[in-house]
Design goal:
globular; 249 residues; five-stranded mixed sheet; Beta Polymerase, domain 2; alpha/beta
């Protein structure tokens, strides 16, 4: 398992720091367990930082409404931004994202996120980070025109230095294992001298699957899975070319 290297070092507005700390304290006092993700966890794992513009807290879907109630009672503006995956707490221009799934509905926060969380210092306090495997899983699908998290995935794989839970990572991607294979292939291209940092078993299993192509396609519909990767870039395939959006199949 990968171990966090250090806490984020971004120079933040003291007002933002106070707000982030207060949100974490309110949720902790209200018995809403959270995990720190986003740029904070990314820097802790990879050492690449100074990109922090907000705080991402991950929580179980069943705790989302409770979190909003607690934060409103504490005097913060809080709203359910997208009921399927994210809420937000705000103070002035400062924002805390409360994330309980992913925009495509795949990376739902469950008990395993908490069971495999890593500890690190965040904002001067000991806090749990989202596991590196779940971070790879959730970032692996972000391939929008305006945002592509592929480089983040590769940096996380490199930072793990082979210490990654292969079985859990494969289980997380599940039917979407080709997305993981795509990132492993890009890793081999980007870091030709570090290919040994990808566990041999992970690469072998993915390539064997690709070679056999044995997993069935659901039903008879002509599916487009691109909508799991981008909310807009594959709309033409669905709206003009007659493919079925796999999210709704």
């Amino acid at each position: 398992m990968a171990t966090p290297k250090r806490a984020p070092s971004a120079n933040l507005d003291p007002e933002a720091v106070a707000f982030y700390r207060h949100v974490m304290q309110v949720l902790r006092a209200g018995s809403v367990p959270t995990l720190v993700g986003g740029a904070w966890a990314f820097e802790a794992y990879t050492g690449i930082g100074e990109r922090t513009k907000d705080l991402d807290l991950f929580l179980r879907p069943s705790h989302a409404e409770r979190a909003l109630e607690l934060l409103r009672a504490a005097g913060h503006e809080a709203e359910m931004t997208a009921p399927t995956w994210i809420a937000k707490a705000k103070m002035s221009e400062h924002v805390v994202d409360l994330i309980f799934s992913s925009g495509n509905g795949i990376s739902v926060v469950d008990d395993l996120w908490f069971g495999h969380a890593r500890w690190a210092q965040v904002l001067g306090h000991r806090a749990r980070l989202i596991p590196i495997e779940e971070m790879i899983w959730s970032k692996g699908f972000i391939m929008e025109r305006e945002r592509f998290d592929g480089a983040d995935v590769l940096h996380l794989l490199r930072a793990a230095r082979g210490k990654i839970d292969v079985d859990r990572l494969l289980a997380r991607f599940g039917l979407h294992w080709r997305v993981l294979l795509a990132h492993v292939t890009l890793f081999d291209y980007v870091y030709p001298s570090d290919r040994q940092l990808i566990p041999d078993r992970l690469r072998t299993l993915l390539l064997e699957r690709a070679g056999s192509e044995s997993d069935p396609v659901e039903g008879s519909a002509r599916l487009c899975y691109g909508t799991f990767l981008s909310r807009s870039q594959y709309q033409a395939d669905v709206e003009r070319f007659g493919l079925t959006d796999a999210r709704h199949a």
